[in-house]
Amino acid sequence: MENTDDKPRKQRGQRTDVILPVSEPAELMAFLIAQLPHKNRNNIKSLLSNKQILVDGKVYTQFNHPLKPGQSVTVAANRAPQTSQYRGLTILYEDQFLIVINKQAGLLSMATNKERDRTAYGILSEYTKKENPKNKIFIIHRLDRETSGVMMFAKSEKVQRLMQESWNATTKERTYVALVEGIPEPPQGTITSYLRESKALIVYSSQNPDTGQLSITNYTVTKTGNGYALLELELETGRKNQIRVHMQDIGHPVAGDAKYGAETDPIGRLGLHAEVLAFEHPITGVSMRFNAPIPKSFLAMVREREEE
Asked: What's the CA gap between 262 and 259, in Å, rounded?
């Protein structure tokens, strides 16, 4: 898990995070000793081990991590609690406004008219109502049932609206990892098209701006093996089934995605994972970044083939 200036905590109390700008090169421990004269070396070691020290929004525990001018070091007010695990999801972060989770493949984000199975929304709704039966949650964005990774919910309609209305402006990074059939050439590129959905709920790609919504996907091949490639994908837009359609467009469908042209299912699930979500907190304005590690099945699929 990687979170930023506001570390995961349920109760923040009255204490606030301290943000320290870096003006000259230094090692992290030396910098903290100089900047926090009221704390001794053991106090600072505790802050590091409790994951309360962040550099540019990312947790660091190494005392000798090098700092560069222009970076900022955050001393989080409270230590990070352990993440909460439920069947189908893990809670990565929670405050009074948001809940961020790592959703497993196979779990619906939210119920539909046709599907009423157990959902991420249902699990989190039950969880929040244990504290107060009047508590509610609101979905901000969705992941397909078979897509795993970072997903976010709001605890009020106001926060939901703020996030959705400013999504493109406040979302700083949205990175996916995909296991695809074949090896894309060139190994790095941008796919741009206009997407529309048919009455049969199939999303189609077009180069005609009058027939759909502008959709942009940047991809980079990171590993290859035995006819498969592992891609890192940055989304400039967030359309329904965008990655799946764009991978089909370039002739390298996501593994396991028969709906959009895949011929194989090597890992028994859709080879798509939401790895990173970074955004500006809708209420505090703090920069936040969450990471859900790439599923081992994705890595094993490529690694095993590389070693053969």
From this structure: 7
